[in-house]
Design goal:
By secondary structure, the chain is of the alpha+beta class. It has one domain: YefM-like fold (3-Layer(aba) Sandwich), CATH 3.40.1620. It has two helices and three strands. The chain has a three-stranded mixed beta sheet. The chain starts with a strand and ends in a 14-residue tail after the last strand.
């Protein structure tokens, strides 16, 4: 699992997209505290959530 800050999410979106496309889960942190998790849409983990 890769970790990124909100600043990286804003400024380096293409890099984070490359990580996600490679199958990595990206943990986004705000002030060193976990905020969200980004996963690939092709990931099997999405089967748990309904997509609208």
């Amino acid at each position: 699992m890769e970790t990124a800050t909100l600043r990286q999410l804003r400024n380096e979106t293409s890099l984070l997209a490359e990580w996600i496309e490679a199958g990595e889960t990206v943990l986004v942190a705000k002030r060193s505290k976990p905020l969200s998790r980004l996963i690939s849409a092709a990931s099997q983990q999405l089967d748990e959530w309904p997509i609208r």
